[in-house]
Every structure is written in C-alpha cells, then in structure tokens.
Amino acid sequence: MNRRTYLQALTALFATTALGSCSQGSVDRKEEKLSDKADKAATLLPGNASFDVPNIPEDNLNFYLVSDLGRNGYYEQKPIAELMGNLAEKIDLEFVVAAGDTHHFNGVASTQDPLWMTNYELIYSHPELMLDWFAINGNHEYRGNTQAVQDYSKVSRRWIAPARYYSKVFEAGENESLEIFFIDTPPLIEKYRKNTEKYADAGKQSIDDQLKWLEKALAASKAKWKLVVGHHPIFADTSKSDTERKDMQERVKPLLEKYGVDMYLCGHIHNFQHIKRADSQVEYLVNSSGSLARKVNQTEGTQFCSPEAGFTLFSLNDNELTFFLYNSKGKILYQHSLKK
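Above: the chain sequence. Below: its structure as tokens.
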C-alpha cells in the first residue's frame, strides 16, 4: 500500500459520524472522565465550510502552533484537525510546533500505546499534515512515560522530539533565520517536582542543566528571530496555581530578556492570550487548546484574549513576523505583527 492510499484509508476509517454536538461554551474543569464525554463528541467540519485564508507573501516561512490536543477526537479536536489540514492546502506550511499535552490525562505508557493513534495519528491524518511535528512534554505527559514521547520519534517519521529540550534553526525569508528553543517546563516548576506520586519523572530532571543549556544556546544564536516554546505560561490569566508562573518568571524570564527573545509561546491554559507588558520587551502568546477550551479574563498587559478552542498560524520573513489565531470554525480571531 503506497503512502497516499494509506493516508486515504486512515482518513476514511476516522471520518465517521459523530456521537453528538460539541460544547459551545467555555469549560472550566481541571479533570473530566472519558466516560463523561460520549455525548460531547465533536462533529467534523461541513463539506462546504469556508475559512479565512490570510494573504501571505510567497517566500514566507509558515508553521502552526498547537497545544493541549489529546481528547481522543472529542470536543472540537476533530474539526480543528480537519481545518488545519484544509488551511495547509492553501498555504505553504513547513512544520508544526506541538507545545505539550498531546496526550491528556495520564500521558502514554509506551511508544505502542493506542493513544498515539486515537489522540494523534488518526486525528491529524490529512496529507498536508504529514510533515515535521516538533514536540515537547506538558504536565500530562509527565503523568506517564515521558521517555516514550522522545522514543516515538523512532516510530513516526513526522514526530520530532530528539531530547527533552532542544533547538532548531529555520530559514526565514531570503537572508535571515528563525531559531526556536524548545524547553521542558514541568521540571522547572516545584509543584510537579514535589508530587513524585503523580509526576514521577519531573523531580529527576536537573533544573540547572536545562537553564545552563538554554542560556548557552540563546547566547550562541545568530538568528534574527528567536522564539522560546514551553508548555507552561510565564504570564497569563488563569485559575491555576500562581506558583507555576512564579517559578517560570524566576527561572526563564530573565534569560528571555537578557538575550532578546522575540516571543515566548506556550499552552496549558486552554484559551488564547496575547500579553505584552510595559516592563518587558518580550511578547507572550498563550495558544488555546486544540480540543477543549476554558474561560479567560484580561490580565496585566493583555492585548487580546478569547475562550475559543483553536490553533495559531505563524508566518515570517526577513523583517516581519505575523501570527493568526484561528478558532474551530476557521475564523481568524486576531492577528498581530512584529517588525524589525
């Protein structure tokens, strides 16, 4: 069976009639049982659904930012995945950044865990999504086998997770480059390190080693555009513990400021938030969940916020970086550009 036939078979297998309608309101629950979700399964996009396509220069570097995906296709995961594929047909998409919690609840047990199929492979099966997915761990991966998240790179050609933290350089425009620094945030937060029963691997990772690596990598970078990606926010409106953000502010924020990072990208909060504080040169973007969203309010520095589920499209060249926040219906909720 050739590659295209295989992809068509996977798509046909999963494009079944949904069990119910997706939730229309924001949800503010920390945990939900799989058994409670059967009546909330998402429907696929209508065949004639329209979506916004931005006017992107031909030579731009384009990629998606996704996070908090893994709901076994429930809620809005399937229509968002289909939208991602359909939009990718219209633009020259290069790669996807997966900012943690690809697998909700208890992570994965191994590289052969069926959740790899129901949370990822069968959902994101559009041919245009068969490209590199650069992945990191979220807190839910830390409830399972975190090494399996890296080892899955040996199983799937598109899953890229060479280490718990790493960087990658991309061409951006004709003469410049983008470097993305992927960090492993759960071990940087004491809440997870101390809960050895639920997050066994978090306390085993060295905080000093990761921060020394990040500083060295940022200092050595020659890229014009620098983005740091982690699962947890540094600034955000959220009902989650303040200690998470305080640990990130203490350990990561000084390095972003010192080395002129343009943006810090994250997930975890399940809503969209663009934050630019008066006391910081760094732009902070919280990407929403690709399945189940939660309510949000403004906080200090809020430029935009939305409780809708979705994903982010980035497009950049030598002198300009623009991001577009998409909801599950294909509407661009907000866009913002950085120039330099």
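DSSP finds eight helices and 14 strands in the chain.
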